Amino acid sequence: MAHVKENFCKAQRSCLIKNAGFDVFDSGQCLGAVRKNGMAIQYVINQTPEICLAAVKKSGMALQHVRSQTHDICIAAIKSNRGAALQFVRHKSPAICWEAISQNGMSLQYIQTQTHALCLKAIHQNALAIQYVRNQTPDLCAAAFKHSPRSAAFIRIPMPDLFKEI
User: What is the pTM of this model?
Assistant: First the structure.
């Protein structure tokens, strides 16, 4: 592996990617790098919104390295990997959570403040999301079971009437 130069004046550069023997010093080259590999964002010193957006569109998981997360950047990350990037969102607004749940009900596991509507949406998207519902209610459990009887393994409240239909 080539030697990575680390002695440079960061203030004179608008962008820098340092990785595996190459230095990239302008935003156009940084943009090109993250379009090829979104995770390269971790090496970008001057993370512009355009560069960050390109990175998360390529790889939603790159969101973990974005220093300034905007609503649009978070939504793009969630859309690019079916909701899994929600785990890296620092401010989980209701709109961001709703988008993640719409993409993948299992994203509910990354949401601390769960509303009934959000849980129901997650269950309709994937009945097995019932396992991540913090406050299971009879109607949420019934909805999960109706969508997939396999969800019964994750129901934590007594539901004696749930199995009568079988």
Answer: 0.80
